[in-house]
Structures are given as C-alpha cells and as structure tokens.
Automatic annotation (TrEMBL):
GO terms for biological process: acetyl-CoA biosynthetic process from acetate. Gene3D superfamilies: 3.30.300.30, N-terminal domain of ligase-like. Its EC number is 6.2.1.1. It holds the Pfam family AMP-binding_C. NCBIfam families: Ac_CoA_lig_AcsA, PRK00174.1. This is acetate--CoA ligase. Residues 34-93 form the Acetyl-coenzyme A synthetase N-terminal domain. Belongs to the ATP-dependent AMP-binding enzyme family. It comes from the Eukaryota.
C-alpha cells in the first residue's frame, strides 16, 4: 500500500455544505435526490442511460443488448459494450445538434493566448464550418474511417478543430501532449500506426519558445528509421511569420515568432509537410458526418504503464459521448449561461473529456487557455477568470499548491465574483490546498468538486455533486451515477464499512475504456487479472465512518508528478541508456508542489565516476527520452541496490531511504543488509 497522504488534523470531521445559492438552481440539490438517482442508475442502468441517450442524435438505435460486459477473466475475454449497433456521430452531436437547436451564434470557445493581448473566440457555427473544412482536408489527403491521426499541438482553437474533424470523418485521433519528447511521440505514432500528424510551427509557453515542428520532424525521422513512414504532416502556422518566406521547398526557413527577438527556425520537407491554411482555403465547408457504430473507436490516448511501455487507452463513440456529457452536466452543474474553464491541456484525458467533449456535448461556452498560471505573473488565472466572468473552474492540485506560495493578495486583488464551482483533478488534494482553494479563491462561497477518475475511466467516477454533497477537504466523496466502487483486501475480499484497500469497480459505466489498443492481453492483465470480476484502478482508498471515500494514491510502480502519471520503469529504461549506468531504480517521493516527484538510485559501471556533470546528463536523458515534465528531482549514487535473494529490487525500502526514514519494517528478505547503510550515507544533500 502507498503511504497515507498528509491529512489536516480532523479533516474528516470538517464538513462543508453546498452553498445555498447554488442549491437553488442545481440539477441535483439534495443527498436524497442524489441517492434516488444513484439507485436508479444501478438498479436499472438501461432505463437510466436510455433516457440520457434520448437527448442525443442517433441515426439508428442499438441492434442488440443496450449494454453487455464481462469483468471476469475466469469466464472468458473481458469486454464492455454500450448501445452496440446504434449509429451516430459525436461531432454531429457536439456541433450540428446545437446549431439546429438555435445555438449557432453561441460562443463555443473563448481563446486566451499565452500573451495576455492574444485572444479570440469561435461560435458553434464557425466551429462547425472549420471542422467540416478540415474534415474535407483530411479526406482529400486520403484519410478515411478507422485511420489513426496523431495530433501534437498547442492549446489553440485549431486543436479542437482537428480532433472534431477526425471524429466527423470517423478517423481515430491519437493526441500526444505537446510536451512529450520526439522519442515519446515516435513511440506513440508507431504503436498506433498513425498515417498522418497534425501539428503547429511552434508555441510560446510562458517565456519559452517551443519548436513543435522540429520535434515532429525528429519523431517522423525516428519512425522512418523504425520502418513506418508517415507521409502527411499538416502544420498550423500559429506564430506570426513573414508572408514572403513560406513554403519554399526543402531547406531551412527562418520565421519570425511572436517575439521579434526570437527566431523560430523550421525545416520544410516538400511533399510531406503541408500548411494547414493552404489546404483549408480550397475545400468546402460542408462535410457529411460518417455514421459510426456506438462501439466504433473514437480515440486512443496513451498513458504510462508499469512495464514502461505506454498503453493506448481506447475509447469508443457512444458510451464516451453519453458519460462525458452527463458528468459535465451534473458535476459542474451546467447552466446555459455558464462560462466554464478547464485549465488542463487537451493532450491529457482531462482536456479530451472536460475541455472538449463533455462541455460541447452540453452546448456550453468554454475557455481554451494557451498559457501557464505564472505568466506574466502568478495572478494570470484570476485575471482570466475576471476577463471572461468564468462561473465554473477546473484545475489540478499541483497548480493550486504552486499558486498558494505567492500569497493571498495576488488572488484577492481580482474580483472572482462570477465563480460558483471550483473543481480539482489529477491527484489527491491535500486538505490545506483544498481549504485555500475554498476560502481564498472561492471566497468561501463556491462548491469544491474533487473529482477522482483516470484516462481509463473516460470521465469522473468518484465526485461530489456541487448542489447536493456535503464535502470533506481531501475526499472525492461518493460514486457518480452508474459507478459501483468497492475496497478489496489483498486476498480480494470486499471491505464493508470503514477500512482501507484496493479501489475497484464492480460494473462498467458507459465510458470505461474498451481495450488497450492492439493489446487485449495487456488490458486484461493490467486491470482485471488481480481481482477477477472487478476493474482494478491501481489506486488505494479508504472509506471513513460516514462512507466518504479518500484516495490514498497509487499502489503500483507509478508516480503521479503534478497530476501526470509516469511509470518508474519508463524512467529507469531512459537512465540505463547512459553508457556509464549499470542499473537504475526510481521511486516516488513526496514533493510540496508537485505532489510526488521522481527519486532515482543509479548504479554505475565499474570505474565510472559519479559527478555533477553526470547528474545533469542523466536528467537530460530523461527529458529527451520522455519529456521535460518527467525530469527526476533527485538522483543518488547507489553502489548497490537492496534486493531480495531472488534479485528483485525492494522499492519499498528505496522509498524509505529517499525520505530518510530508518523505520524499514521487515528486512529479512534482503540479500545483503549492508547495502542499506551505504545508501543512507549516500543521500544527496538536497534530499
Ligand atoms: O492516482 C489517481 C490520480 O490520477 C490517476 C489517473 O491519472 P490519469 O490517467 O493521468 O488521469 C488524470 C486525470 C483524470 C488516478 O489513478 N487521481 C486522479 N484524480 C484524482 C486522483 N487521485 C486522487 N484524487 C483525485 N481527484
């Protein structure tokens, strides 16, 4: 089990009732109503979800069972199906359906650039036209239903256009967060056999200029070397450039980026590289949606796996559409005049479900933000909230903790009067951060929704409902409609009442992942083998005497760095590519802002010196192989590693050494106890 998170003394007893102002308008405004709806969703899921499905457009109804599944590996292959045989198109439901209902002129998204003077907006009709155009561009390039398209883009409106255009023509999008390295991008393109990629020339993130095109070029080169040729790379010209020097065939182009003092140098491979704006000019803005089966694939999104190789989590059209829209409606208590802002990057699942599909499924107005919370200063989020009069706001604990450091004044100098609901996601939120969010950001008048979910779950699974659930700081509270959680002992026995164990789910809800792309066996092994009959989250959780659920963190070898999951194996495989490294072990380590960070133990080959330069080289290797966000915070020279007699590294002991805790518990299985002192004495000064 992972160590328990810090709790504010007595935080289990602290209870915050839903704000009365919110309760008056909320879709669900009492626990009785929540419980009634919850029971209905569990006792009769078919009727519950059929009623919700009726609000969407279906070309034709399901042909077989409304839903069907097997969670028990001992009984046969794992499968999950919702509304199989029904025909629909998610893009049509996100755009055309609302336009037909008179929402064409409603703002779909405000766009706020990295630079506070850069902004834009797009209505539902305008978005639909752009999506149709880009759908036609993709079709003209020969991309068809079922093809995989990689997207590596900054947070710009064209990113939403690209993903919705894929969905419209039935292509499967595979979005890779534009902070991953060329190697990570290549791994993902190769795994999915993507036939095209959509990117942008570059982007400013805070005061840093990133050359996305170069990263994509490098990734495509790696793909070529490994035998997979991507012959279409569509490039959005995002940074302002000199009109004279575009598209001159092979060779280097120098373009002015948004800041005149910087030049972005990009290469152009004629025949493969295509400017987005060139293609968009000559196509029609009418694009008939491809009518998809509810169980056809919508997208894959890669998430770290404990073996080191990322898993392509596969989501399908129908169930994902219903569940993201329904969770958005109830968890953010969607009202038509809302301005909703989720700060997550679309490259992560939060951006898929709660920047794009959930909000658009409801016809809401959202904000897409390109920048960072700290640029030009740490008041940026609150400034943007005032600028667009944001009513519902969704961010990560890591951002809250980082902003707390700057004090209250930089928050309170902005009005934040419009705010009603504040959401958090991605990692356990410590009660101190929860209380600061509630008292300072929300001025003590907003509901906080701590939403627990995963890339795999597609949408929120444990969460308060803002008009109904009395909240406790640090608890994700209760299950959403259709979700049946349980806590299991190591032996797989269900824990009734208060207790702590493995967090699992007993039944599927519509947006649970369907498989690991191209690897059903890995899907079954990762999520269903340990406890047959249950979907296993990989997290530990505790239920208190009031039935509230508290997530205690990962119980596998995953590290949650600033809300981003990384596997320790992934970091270790990067480290051992250094010529001087014989062996490496990395573990999760508590971090005040990031929640967790990576602490690495490195064993060098005979005769190699552990120097400051080597530490820098090792950190850079991880940056290059995975991405800058994965860089370890601590590295330590480990002349040897603690191992069992069968040679297994004892990570439990390494985690203790990393925090300097000599309380090691049972060490009887250690092959060589002398390693322990050696490692304690070698801890880096900054640890
Ligand atoms: O450990 C849990 C943590 O993030 C993991 C899922 O990560 P990912 O697939 O990247 O998706 C993140 C965004 C949904 C979970 O297994 N996690 C996520 N939300 C919470 C959380 N831990 C505690 N509380 C949360 N609210």
């Amino acid at each position: 089990m992972a160590e328990q998170n810090d709790h504010v003394a007595g935080s289990e007893e602290l209870i915050f009732n839903p704000p009365a102002s919110l309760q008056n308008e909320a879709h669900v405004n009492s626990m009785q109503q929540y419980q009634k709806m919850y029971r209905h969703s569990i006792d009769d899921p078919e009727t519950f979800w059929r009623e919700i499905a009726a609000e969407f457009y279906w070309k034709s109804p399901p042909t077989g069972k409304f839903f069907d599944y097997n969670f028990d590996v001992t009984k046969g292959p794992i499968f999950i199906k919702w509304m199989e045989g029904a025909k629909t198109n998610i893009c049509y439901n996100m755009l055309d359906r609302h336009i037909s209902n008179g929402l064409g002129d409603k703002i779909a998204f405000y766009w706020e650039g990295n630079d506070p003077t850069d902004h834009g907006k797009i209505t539902y009709s305008q978005l639909q036209q752009k999506v149709c155009r880009f759908g036609n561009v993709l079709k003209n390039l020969g991309i068809k239903r079922g093809d995989r398209v990689a997207i590596y883009m900054p947070m710009i409106l064209d990113l939403s256009v690209a993903m919705l255009a894929c969905a419209r023509i039935g292509a499967i999008h595979s979005i890779v967060f534009a902070g991953y390295s060329a190697e990570s991008l290549a791994d993902r393109i190769l795994d999915a056999h993507c036939c095209a990629i959509v990117t942008a020339d570059g982007v400013w993130r805070g005061s840093k200029l990133l050359n996305l095109k170069k990263i994509v070029d490098d990734a495509l080169k790696i793909c070529d070397e490994r035998g997979h040729h991507v012959d279409k790379s569509i490039v959005v010209r995002h940074l302002s450039v000199d009109e004279e020097i575009i598209n001159n065939g092979d060779g280097d182009d120098e373009r002015e980026a948004a800041r005149p003092s910087h030049k972005l140098k990009i290469n152009w491979t004629a025949g493969r590289d295509i400017w987005w704006h060139d293609m968009m000019q000559s196509v029609s803005d009418v694009c008939e949606p491809e009518w998809m089966d509810a169980e056809d694939s919508l997208f894959m999104l890669y998430t770290s796996g404990s073996t080191g190789k990322p898993k392509g989590v596969l989501h399908t059209v129908g169930g994902y559409m219903l569940y993201t829209a329904t969770t958005f409606k109830y968890v953010f208590d969607y009202q038509p005049d809302d301005v909703y802002w989720c700060t997550a990057d679309v490259g992560w699942i939060t951006g898929h479900s709660y920047v794009t599909y959930g909000p658009l499924g409801n016809g809401s107005t959202g904000v897409i933000f390109e920048g960072t919370p700290f640029y030009p200063d740490a008041g940026r989020l609150w400034e943007v909230i005032d600028k667009y009069k944001v009513t519902k706001f969704y961010t990560a604990p890591t951002a809250i903790r980082a902003l707390m450091k700057f004090g209250d004044d930089i928050v309170t100098k902005y009005s934040r009067e419009s705010l009603k609901i504040l959401g958090t996601v991605g990692e356990p939120i410590n009660p101190e951060a929860w209380l600061w969010y509630y008292n300072v950001v929300g001025n003590g008048k907003c509901a906080i929704v701590d939403t627990f979910w995963q890339t795999e779950t597609g949408g929120h699974v444990l969460t308060p409902l803002p008009g109904a659930t009395p909240t406790k700081p640090g608890s994700a509270t209760f299950p959403f409609f259709g979700v049946v959680p349980a806590l299991l002992t190591e032996e797989g026995r269900e824990i009734e009442g208060p207790g702590e164990g493995y967090l699992v789910f007993k039944k599927p809800w519509p947006s649970l992942m369907r498989t690991v792309y191209g690897n059903q066996e890995r899907f079954e092994t990762t999520y269903f083998k340990k406890f047959p009959g249950y979907y296993c989250t990989g997290d530990g959780a505790r239920r208190d005497s009031d039935g509230y659920i508290w997530i205690t963190g990962r119980i596998d070898d995953m590290v949650n760095v600033s809300g981003h999951l990384l596997s320790t194996a992934e970091v270790e495989s990067a480290l051992i590519t250094h010529k001087n490294v014989a062996e490496a072990a990395s573990v999760s380590h508590p971090h005040k802002i990031k929640g967790e960070c990576i602490y690495c133990f490195v064993t060098l080959k005979q005769g190699c010196q552990y120097t400051d330069e080597l530490v820098v080289e090792l950190k850079n290797i991880v940056r290059t192989k995975i991405g800058p966000f994965a860089q370890p915070d601590f590295l330590q020279n480990a002349p040897a590693l603690p191992k069992t007699r069968s040679g297994k590294i004892m990570r439990r002991i390494l985690r203790k050494i990393a925090v300097g805790d000599r309380n090691l518990g049972d060490t009887s299985t250690l092959a060589d106890e002398s390693v322990i002192d050696l490692l304690f004495n070698n801890r880096p000064n900054n640890a």
